[in-house]
Amino acid sequence: MITSCALGEGEIMANQYPSPPPPPPPPPGYPGGPASGYPNPPGYSPYGQAPMQGPVYAGFWLRFVAYIIDAIVVNIAAYILGFIVGLAIGFGGGRDAQAMQLVMGILGIVLAWLYFALQESSAASATLGKRALGLRVLCSDGARLSFGRATGRFFAKIISGIILMIGYIMAAFTDRKRALHDMIADTVVIKG
What mean pLDDT, rounded, does the chain reach? Predict the structure, then answer.
């Protein structure tokens, strides 16, 4: 004997209508997720923002080109400063070539130090060469460099260069593309 349940008014049996077909697949790049039954596409953020990704570190060749641009700028400034100082010393009656070379050497180091340290610790966090290529120098935690840290980074470049430039070449082989002076100063050079 088959018994049937009495349905009340407005009630329907579960199998009275067929199940709806599954939804069509989403277009490429469509946000999915558990609610839609489709996985999220790679890099999708449910908050409508760009996905959280780590920084993109600047490689050896980008940094090399930025340094060439900076070297051109510093040398132009040094030649202008040297011309002015040379005129001042010449008009002052100074004829000692060795003293002139010493003064110019010291002024050249001070000029390069201030150029790199002031610009890398500025709001732009980059020298003119790095800005031209869209690079920035930051502390390894992402903070802006202080003038002291930028100064330490500048003088640590002496160590990078004195060991046959190996300190600079290290940027091509380290995980965060850091040169020796970046490791000493705990800095990174990133794109953007």
Answer: 84
Q: What is the pLDDT of residues 73-103, one digit of tens each?
A: 999 999 999 888 888 877 767 667 787 888 8
CA–CA gap between residue 139 and residue 129 (Å, rounded): 19
- pTM score of the predicted model: 0.70
Q: What is the mean pLDDT of residues 116-129?
A: 97
Say what the alpha-carbon torsion angle 62, 67, 70, 76 is, to the nearest 10 degrees.
Answer: -130
What are the tens digits of pLDDT across the range 57-76? 999 999 999 999 999 999 99
| 3-state SS assignment for residue 136 | strand
Q: Is residue 161 situated within a structural domain?
A: yes
Range of the domain at 186: 60-191
* Whole-number Å distance between alpha carbons of 101 and 107: 10
Q: In whole angstroms, what is the distance from residue 128 CA to residue 75 CA?
A: 13
| Residue 165 located in a structural domain | yes
- Write the single-letter amino acid at 38: Y
State the total domains in the chain.
Answer: 1
Q: In residues, how long is the chain?
A: 192
H-type helices in the chain, by residue range? 60-91, 97-120, 128-132, 147-162, 166-169, 180-185
